Amino acid sequence: MMMARKQDVRIPTYNISVVGLSGTEKEKGQCGIGKSCLCNRFVRPSADEFHLDHTSVLSTSDFGGRVVNNDHFLYWGEVSRSLEDCVECKMHIVEQTEFIDDQTFQPHRSTALQPYIKRAAATKLASAEKLMYFCTDQLGLEQDFEQKQMPDGKLLIDGFLLGIDVSRGMNRNFDDQLKFVSNLYNQLAKTKKPIVVVLTKCDEGVERYIRDAHTFALSKKNLQVVETSARSNVNVDLAFSTLVQLIDKSRGKTKIIPYFEALKQQSQQIATAKDKYEWLVSRIVKNHNENWLSVSRKMQASPEYQDYVYLEGTQKAKKLFLQHIHRLKHEHIERRRKLYLAALPLAFEALIPNLDEIDHLSCIKAKKLLETKPEFLKWFVVLEETPWDATSHIDNMENERIPFDLMDTVPAEQLYEAHLEKLRNERKRAEMRRAFKENLETSPFITPGKPWEEARSFIMNEDFYQWLEESVYMDIYGKHQKQIIDKAKEEFQELLLEYSELFYELELDAKPSKEKMGVIQDVLGEEQRFKALQKLQAERDALILKHIHFVYHPTKETCPSCPACVDAKIEHLISSRFIRPSDRNQKNSLSDPNIDRINLVILGKDGLARELANEIRALCTNDDKYVIDGKMYELSLRPIEGNVRLPVNSFQTPTFQPHGCLCLYNSKESLSYVVESIEKSRESTLGRRDNHLVHLPLTLILVNKRGDTSGETLHSLIQQGQQIASKLQCVFLDPASAGIGYGRNINEKQISQVLKGLLDSKRNLNLVSSTASIKDLADVDLRIVMCLMCGDPFSADDILFPVLQSQTCKSSHSGSNNSVLLELPIGLHKKRIELSILSYHSSFSIRKSRLVHGYIVFYSAKRKASLAMLRAFLCEVQDIIPIQLVALTDGAIDVLDNDLSREQLTEGEEIAQEIDGRFTSIPCSQPQHKLEIFHPFFKDVVEKKNIVEATHMYDNVAEACSTTEEVFNSPRAGSPLCNSNLQDSEEDIEPSSYSLFREDTSLPSLSKDHSKLSMELEGNDGLSFIMSNFESKLNNKVPPPVKPKPPVHFEMTKGDLSYLDQGHRGDGQRKSVSSSPWLPQDGFDPSDYAEPMDAVVKPRNEEENIYSVPHDSTQGKIITIRNINKAQSNGSGNGSDSEMDTSSLERGRKVSIVSKPVLYRTRCTRLGRFASYRTSFSVGSDDELGPIRKKEEDQASQGYKGDNAVIPYETDEDPRRRNILRSLRRNTKKPKPKPRPSITKATWESNYFGVPLTTVVTPEKPIPIFIERCIEYIEATGLSTEGIYRVSGNKSEMESLQRQFDQDHNLDLAEKDFTVNTVAGAMKSFFSELPDPLVPYNMQIDLVEAHKINDREQKLHALKDVLKKFPKENHEVFKYVISHLNKVSHNNKVNLMTSENLSICFWPTLMRPDFSTMDALTATRTYQTIIELFIQQCPFFFYNRPISEPPGTMPSSPSAMASTVPFLTSTPVTSQPSPPQSPPPTPQSPMQPLLPSQLQAEHTL
Questions:
Q1: E strand spans, 677-746
Q2: Spatial distance between the Cα atoms of 549 and 269, rounded to a whole number of angstroms
Q3: d(Cα 166, Cα 95) in Å, to the nearest integer?
Q4: pLDDT grade for 858, boundaries at 50, 70 and 90
């Protein structure tokens, strides 16, 4: 019931009458007291509906209208309000006034004739059909406004609002008003209705009036007083709500707020609304061209717009909008002005850049000058209306030209003056720069490499400092230094070439000895071009080493003239002149008489190789020819199924050089055989310069196993094969991809694809036989080499033009890109001549190894280096080979005005006379010589052809039969060409006693190469035994020492021609010790330079060898050459007479006499100028053969003494292992500054390298700056480098890097362009050279003890406890290095360096145990595992992260085995096979997700 009753309660309605002073102007003054404004603001509070003008002077018609309705009161309408207690109520508002007739200015006569005081106090009002009042404009236009009638035509008044105007009213006395109000109040009080006094117009109020009004209210029984302002909308609602509270006593009492407090609240509300509205306008209006109508429509629904319009009205909102538009326009104009002013200097620079033209012109005159310029309209626009910012041009955004009237403004004049000043200053600065540069060029104190600090005092003066900053002069000085340094380097390089004879006589390798470097310094030291680089010793040393590299390994890339090497030019010329045989169409290929040859090794166990060879032969023609893409190829197969170390199973023989290998497997055992065989084959040729097996193309093929249909086994074999193929970087074929049917190993399509790939690889690797044998002369009669000097000032095109454009010139069938065929009539017959056009550095490698019938050597008459290279080349040429010298001159000889050219020409002629050669000169101004000038030389070649060929055969057969120990120990020892000393079994093989390793290398390069494949294969479940066995063979096998077999003496008689034929076929592969391939291979591995193996063959033993060689097969002659025990040094000797044997195969002819030829150096006094240096040094380089061989000899002769006596088993140990252990031993003497090898000095002592760690770190910089620079460089450029830290860097470059850093600790590695491997090697070398290892010896014992703990977690915590005991310096550096190695291991998918690989490379460097004890030897695997754990668990050890899970459930490497397994054992290490699974070969580091960001922060410390 209560709820129902509450719901039935209607909204209360109150009728309120507003009264106050009214009447004529005499009574109320010129304006009313504000009753109408008060009612208007309350009934219609919106600013747009509020009207200030409410007149009471009406016409009779308006007075009688329905709004006034002949009454002296106005009905304002009904209002609904929610009061403070949130109860809604309705109010009818009535205003009691008095309307004045506009004619008589007297009150209108109405039905009620009572005076205003009595009429205003009426409580019952009635007026039929009276309409609600809006404003004065409504009168007479009632139909245009809302028509709402007063309810029921009558109202009962519930209360009164008594208004008092407290403003200074015009013609009104406040006391009179107060008297009127007092009388009115007395009349109202009689009604006993509630009364509230309202003070109106308080915004203009007078303080005294307000005070008197309050006094009046207090005198009338404490009337409630509300101070209001209808105009400001202050306390209007409060006045009406206060009256309602008095009417309805049940409502809460309303708190009356003073006017100024209420005004403050209202002002804050308006300010907030204004801010929101302005924000709205700025967000919507972006263009100054917007109009109010469209924008107001957009804002209509926005509350910010509605609130502000409600409080302030639409007009004020529009005003703010217009202000915003004006501001946008002003900003737009200013932006345009700034753009124009910014473009104005550019216009000045483009139109009037010449100071001489405008130096004395004012801005007005310059303006006229601008108009005359042709490009004036490109920069300026002349407007019809000005100024430009008052026209529509401001909105023409497409036209960016500058309004020309802008030139009349002050900023434009200032910019013109600034332009003038700029030109004047630039002229002065340019003069200063020129003067400074002239000082640099003329000053004798400015030499290459002189620092700015030293040069500044000699060249600077006050004027220089006044006009330019020092940085500008430093930049000019730096550029000048670069120019003179580059010039000095070029001149020094030319000097090195001028001393070519010295470098070739010294027989330098990649690691030249100190004595040889000292000779170079002594010889070159007095040269001015050598002294010019005195302040750049490191760079001078680098240039010398680079030149030695070029001499030792001459290629197009290492050539000093690269990329303008003659070889590259010749290849381009010949390739553009001819279509190579490989590029011919298939139509022509069938008719090509030259059939290429493919030598293919087939490797497979248990009959797989023989079976596939038979299948391939079945696809060939009867004569073993195979057709590929329409061309015929001769296919030679070599199936191998046994031990590849035995000669019978060798990949390469004197008569067979493989072009590719097919590796077959059908089981894990056969796959392991393939891997071991490849490794053994590569090991056997390690260190040879002509090592083709390293780059031999491999194809791994999974063949069907008869009767095996197990899908699981097949899948496992495929997966393992793919893994092996990826490591060997070879092609993999499986049955699914090959489409092989049952009973067939491989189909014909697959064979063709494999052979095509081998052909491409054969061409790319230049595996065409590099040594031409006499058998190959069936195609050509003569082989002549034409030598040109790289960098000569003459064009190879002009020199070779007569040759290449000759009608007799054809493409060579040998496939070489630098040879052509010539058919020339020589004597009575035409001869086919193969002319090879090469650079000198490419020709050096063929002097002894290749059959050449004659040389045409060119040199420039105006270049010393050109003739010097010619002399160096001729020194090693046998004196029986015809030589044609060609001097290239600028003009005719008789007009030469250059003394150098005349001297060079004279010397060339003298050399030709002394060696019985021919000499001619060709003026390059008229290069169109003819081939006829070489015809006398060609006749000489034909005459000496037989003796040249016989001598070539003599040298090669004698070399093949040499069996001295020195030859076996040379890099050629592993070559099949040295198989005269063949082993009967694998057990007879002993590695070379010559050390393959550098002294500062912790691990042998061979085991590094093996470890890369071995470590990554050990994680495979089926193949772990392969690599463990292979490793055990490397590490644990103890082969017995091999006694060299006695020399074999061959006596080739008439019945031995079968071997002779075999020698012919193998002759193409024979080379002398110092020889290189016929053409250098393009793929140069820097490791060849970093790890050279240089050996020199000693003179042959005195013996008598008789060789029979074919003299002329067409005539059936045989020449016998006999060596009568007169071998001399350098392969030269006087030789002996040779007699011609006769037999039933020979015709009765007289024996021809052949003597062993000497070299041209022995016949010509101008050759061999530095020959005395050739025999003045020990064999090989000091750092390689000398100390190691001497040490081994001492131990062999004296036995083991002193401390070494504790390890007697080393006598039977593998020599590689023995060398490693020796290199890892450390002495206990107090360290001294390390003497550093140098080129310019005998030694140099470093104060940074080889000193205790505490001397290169500080508490502020706990990391050595060198280590920090190296690691930052590696992490910035080398994290993706394959084999980082495994592949050795260039030792000479590493030493150069350390030396340069020792001189300048601010060395920028990026600017010096060091390779990543060089920087990595230098960093490892830093730790190797520390007096004590980074991991202290006393800590190593604790680490090993902690590692013995079986529980993994306890082990790691124990290791961490030991780590905390490290000295602070060692701990900080160790943390920095291990964090870096962890980061490297995260990139193992790219660089192939897992944490295990890195630990193998780093543990000897970081720990350096003393291998003089058995405990250290047996703990080596433990050391490696400890370092691996530190790398894997880096976040746990150094950054308090949780322990990471291991990469797999089973150990992925031998390092995961028990630490108790000894490193050296007599039996192979076996491991339990893992469950069937295939973990990734390079497991991801467990720190991948959390380490990088944290370690990056640590690295920056």
A1: 698-702, 731-733
A2: 87
A3: 19
A4: very high
The region, left, alpha or beta by phi > 0 then psi within -120 to 50, assigned to residue 140 is left
DSSP code of residue 7: H
- Give, as one character, the DSSP assignment of residue 1448: S
Cα gap 956→1107, rounded to integer Å: 11
**Residues 446-477: pLDDT tens digits?**
889 888 888 877 777 767 777 778 888 888 88
The residue type of 433 is R
3-state secondary structure 132-178: CCCCHHHCCCHHHCCCCECHHHEEECCEEEEEEECECCCCCCHHHHH
The whole-number average pLDDT for the span 58-86 is 84
What is the number of residues in the chain?
1501
Q: What is the mean pLDDT of the chain?
A: 74
Contact call for residues 1094 and 510 (beta carbons, < 8 A): yes
Q: What is the CA radius of gyration of the chain?
A: 54
- Alpha-carbon distance of 393 to 258, in angstroms, equals 56
Cβ(1031)–Cβ(1021) below 8 Å: no
Six-digit token pair at 580? 């190579």
Residues forming beta bridges with residue 1121, ordered by sequence position: 1107
Question: Could you tell me the two tokens for 1190?
Answer: 């001497």
Better-scored residue on pLDDT, 84 or 565: 565
For residue range 1426-1463, list pLDDT tens digits in order: 999 999 999 999 998 999 877 644 333 333 333 333 33
pTM reported for the whole predicted model: 0.43
Q: Does residue 69 come out as left (phi exceeding 0), alpha (psi in the -120 to 50 range) or beta?
A: left
Q: CA 370 → CA 404, 430, 1373, distances in Å?
A: 10, 26, 69
100 - beta bridge partners? 57, 107
Return the structure tokens found at 603: 């490797």
C-alpha 969/C-alpha 974 separation (Å) is: 9
In contact, 238 and 262? CB cutoff 8 Å: yes
Percent of the chain with pLDDT over 70: 70
Q: Tell me the sheet residues that pair with 602.
A: 639, 662
With H, G, I as helix, E, B as strand and everything else as coil, classify residue 653. strand
Mean pLDDT confidence for 199-213: 92
The model's pLDDT over 1007-1039, given as tens digits with 9 standing for 90+, comes to 333 443 343 434 444 344 344 443 443 344 334
CA separation, residue 1320 to residues 852, 1073, 1246, 1280, 1284 (Å): 45, 32, 19, 13, 7
Q: What tokens were used for 65?
A: 């209208």
Secondary structure (DSSP) of 1197-1257 = HH---GGGGG-GGGGGS-HHHHHHHHHH----SPP-PPEEE-SSSSEEE-SSTTS-GGGS-
Contact 967, 1045 (CB under 8 A): no
Query: In angstroms, what CA-CA distances link 734 with 621, 711, 730, 1479?
Result: 27, 13, 13, 21
- Chain Cα centroid distance, residue 815: 38
**Does residue 40 surpass a pLDDT of 80?**
yes
- Is the separation of the CB atoms in 1107 and 954 below 8 Å? yes
582 vs 579: CA distance, rounded Å: 8
